[in-house]
Design brief:
single chain, 289 residues, alpha/beta, Rossmann fold, Pantoate--beta-alanine Ligase, Chain: A,domain 2, six-stranded parallel sheet, 11 helices, 9 strands, globular, binds pantoate
Length: 289
């Protein structure tokens, strides 16, 4: 596996792959890799893509400086995992390499991310999706991948990236890959490493509450389903729900009634101590989206 640290090394390597007639799958990550990330690499390899994975803790998407400072970083272990998973190259740039224009300078380009970016994470993390769009569009333009692979734990992020690619006129297939969970149901996340043992023990309650709510929703309203999840989680030690929204899976706007859409997803963010965990559950999904 090649380890590429500069934009020019990346460009050169991508040109080499193209010269060999390879299709390219991009797996953008912020490192602290776990099985969820590795499943994206597997998916890209199954499609026959040469896999370029990026490992970059993107400062422009953090609206909380403490969150950025404490974000787990473990480059050596990440590179080993990427190599074992069969990535062709890892792009591991510095902040200066990615943002020669600086990260603080007001970005002249404001991405048109539409209504999918206005709710949930967009509401609670102002500027977050502009930062995500900024880094992901840079990576799309540098690598010009055939496909970009993203995990469904960040359900809203996938919708925002699809919208960004569309409005920026970037020709790419966005492949969304299922959430990977621990044996106890907790969605795998780099942030799980920040949980104390006590917090880690209660964290699986998030998925348990969501899974329970799928049955509950068969005989209860959207509002009652919402409330049962929030009440159950808020009653747990360490836990505080930031938001739980039951939304249309395409527009991400809240639904008031189960009959309002054929694609309905519940998206949640819970503080477990100081650690912000996100997860989601599907209530309804048509065979073809
Ligand atoms: O999902 C993430 O880890 C990040 O938001 C991404 C897509 C790598 C952009 O920094």
């Amino acid at each position: 596996m090649k380890v590429l640290r500069t934009v020019s090394e990346l460009r050169e390597y991508v040109a080499e792959l193209r010269g060999e007639g390879r299709t390219i799958g991009l797996v953008p990550t912020m490192g602290a890799l776990h099985e969820g990330h590795l499943s994206l690499i597997e998916a890209a390899r199954r499609n026959g893509d040469a896999v370029v994975a990026s490992v970059f803790v993107n400062p422009t998407q953090f609206n909380n400086p403490t969150d950025l400072a404490t974000y787990p970083r473990c480059e050596e272990a990440d590179l080993r995992l990427l190599e074992e998973a069969g990535a062709s190259a890892a792009f591991v740039p510095t902040v200066e390499e990615v943002y020669p224009e600086g990260t603080d300078a007001p970005d002249t380009h404001v991405f048109d991310l539409g209504q999918v970016a206005e709710v949930m994470e967009g509401k609670f993390r102002p500027g977050h999706f502009q930062g995500v769009a900024r880094i992901v569009s840079k990576l799309f333009r540098l690598v010009e991948p055939d496909r970009g692979y993203f995990g469904e734990k960040d359900f809203q992020q996938i919708a925002v990236i699809r919208r960004m690619a569309q409005t920026e006129g970037i020709d790419i297939e966005i492949v969304s890959c299922p959430i990977r969970r621990g044996a106890d149901g907790l969605a795998l996340s780099s942030r799980n490493a920040l949980l104390t043992p006590g917090q880690r023990a209660v964290a699986p309650e998030i998925h348990r509450a969501l899974a329970y709510s799928v049955n509950y929703s068969q005989s209860h309203s959207v509002q009652a389903t919402h409330d049962t999840v929030v009440e159950r989680l808020d009653a747990q030690p360490f836990m505080q729900v930031e938001y739980f929204e039951i939304v249309d899976g395409r527009t991400l706007q809240p639904v008031a009634d189960w009959a309002d859409s054929d694609y309905i997803v519940g998206c949640i963010t819970v503080y477990c101590g100081k650690v912000r965990l996100i997860d989601n559950i599907t209530y309804r999904k048509p065979e073809k989206i």
